[in-house]
Amino acid sequence: MNNPYRPYPVKISKTLVETEDKQLKSFWLDFLEPADAQAFQYTPGQFAELSVAGYGEIPIGIASSPTEGDTLLFTVNKVGVVSNRLHQMNQGDVMGVRGPLGNSYPLKEMEGKNVVIVAGGFAVTTLRSTVTWLLHPDHRSKYGDITFIYGARTPGLLLYEDQWREWQKRDDINCAVTIDREAEGWDGLVGFVPSVCEEVAPKPDNAVALICGPPVMIRFTQPVFDKLGWQSEQIIMSLENRMKCGIGICGRCNVGPEYVCKDGPVFSKAQLDALPAEY
Amino acid sequence: MADKILAKDKLGDFLGKLQADYEVYAPQEVEGKPQWAPVEESDKVLWDFSNTHTSPKDFFFPQTEIMMRFKNVQDHENGMVMEAEPPLANKRLLFNIRPCDAKAFQVLDLIFVQDEMTNDLFWKDKRDKTTLVGLACSDPCPSCFCTSMNCGPASTTGLDALVFDLGDKLLVRALTEKGEAVAEGLDDAAEADQAAAEEQTKAAEAQISSSVGMDKVNERSVMELYEAGMWDRVYENCLNCGTCTYVCPTCHCFDIQDETQGESGRRVRNWDNCMSWLFTMHGTGHNPRGAKKDRVRQRFMHKFKYIPVKRDGEIGCVGCGRCVLLCPVNIDVRRVVNDMNA
């Protein structure tokens, strides 16, 4: 029987410091055992516990898309014991991955609809996975217009520049990347995410919006969508809370009766409206 | 299987025979308190006790449990070797467990083992290899409120067999195959013995004086209960000491920590408690339950609203009353639930 607490051994195949403040580092991980790669079947929106023996585990959203192959991508913010240790680890080091955990974005229910994706700061990780998945030739035709709005404070704090520069060249996605204030060498949009949303003005008809970002971004983006006529059922969000087991037992990540690790992390705004705001 | 009878003076032989197949544990007086201990002499087994000081949950969910061991081996191509802990070696039998504690494990089964992913092998292995022989309550204490919590002095849920203490003899009622294996070979009980057991149960039920209402708690929405004004009164006295969580048979929150010494180490899980601010604190410093009120409310909401909502009406409390007896500031769960239900 499968032991859900046993991490799969993986090797770091590549790392990249993503941001100018060096707070965010990306890790590309390859499974040591092909059978483990087979067992790790995930969908955009899910997360995994990154496991470093002697330090512990942290829950991190999966930034890669299963359409990219078996290599997993995680981008980790340096805040605690495990993430600090991870930031010291390099290509060739072996660690563990436990998952995939949680639910995913409702990709099936989104079929036939226009998709609006709004990301702020490093909350873009699982949305990078989603956009990559949606743009894959096997999936793109099942969805209507795709709009991607992404912002960070400065150009140096934007993640995954290679990807969104590619997306900006495509004609099957409307990709708006913005920074808060003018910066030297920046030729793209300037302005906070909520203002850019106001300019782009995505229509709510037959559409779904995935919105992830810091609380301040959510607080000011929400009224923009309300004004455009969006209903709370159409707005999908992803939560994060402190976690340990990741499988709905250990008791700390709950928001009301829902466990973020098992029933989430993806919830509709309508669901969250009926729950305590303990996140 | 028909009800069986066992003379109390034959208990030594009976338990001795079981010990060939099981490690047998029963409540005995340890440091002046009724506590769980391995049975060495059958006359040390307690009969007159309300309930054990702490719940027997640590038989299935130890206060500290090793989940795996690891070794950082520099010259190994995998760098790090992890080994899962081996399963339990022997079968175990808990003799004279109170029905409320057994009911708690049935509730916890629904949480530890939900589906293919949420399948806690550490819990399941110990549950599968343990037989629970209950002792019906004949003299409930004033803090008991099991009859309000889907339970009772002779509740059979979660038990493999139930024993009624009829003075110089015991009526043994097998409830499962595991229980039949225990009762096998005993003589059938007489109708008069069965009647005496019924009488005793009725008397015990009548003796339970506290009742707690859940009807309005069930009707009300999560948010209505969450936003109730009563929490402002309940939380004030609380010290966030966590005693209630450690003695509670259904509290099951845990932490996972890595412990290392030199090149080797182990991943352990420890009992944790929702009264601690660290329990929910994010790496960034943000804390979704940063205030004492949030944490006190969480514990009661979890037991009486969140678990019922998620688990088909099962309640995360069995009315054992340990928290009532041991709370240092006399927070009484019965009063809290009645306030939620008011």
Structure, explained:
The complex is a heterodimer of chains A (about 280) and B (about 350). Chain A is α/β, with parallel strands linked by helices. Chain A folds into 2 domains: about 10-100, Elongation Factor Tu (Ef-tu), domain 3; about 115-240, Rossmann fold. Helices cover about 20% and strands about 30% of the residues of chain A. Chain A has helices at about 35-40, 80-90, 125-135, 160-170, 195-200, 215-225, 270-275, and strands spanning about 10-15, 25-30, 45-50, 55-60, 70-75, 95-100, 115-120, 145-150, 175-180, 190, 205-210, 235-240, 255, 260, 265-270. In chain A, the strands form 3 sheets. Chain A has a 7-stranded mixed beta sheet, sandwiched between helices. Chain A has a 6-stranded antiparallel beta sheet with strand order 4-3-6-1-2-5. In chain A, a hairpin with a 2-residue loop joins strand 13 and strand 14. The model of chain A has no long low-confidence stretch (mean pLDDT about 95). Chain B is of the alpha+beta class. Chain B has one domain (about 5-340). Chain B is about 30% helix and about 20% strand. Chain B has 12 helices and 12 strands. Chain B has helices at about 10-20, 100-110, 120-130, 175-185, 190-205, 215-220, 220-225, 230-235, 245, 290-310, 320-325, 335-340; strands at about 5, 25-30, 35-40, 65-70, 80-85, 90-95, 130-135, 160-165, 170-175, 185-190, 255-260, 265-270. In chain B, the strands form 2 sheets. An 8-stranded mixed beta sheet of chain B has the order 3-2-6-7-8-9-1-10. Chain B has a 4-stranded antiparallel beta sheet with strand order 5-4-12-11, with no helix packed on it. In chain B, a hairpin with a 2-residue loop joins strand 11 and strand 12. Chain B starts with a strand and ends with a helix. The mean pLDDT of chain B is about 95.
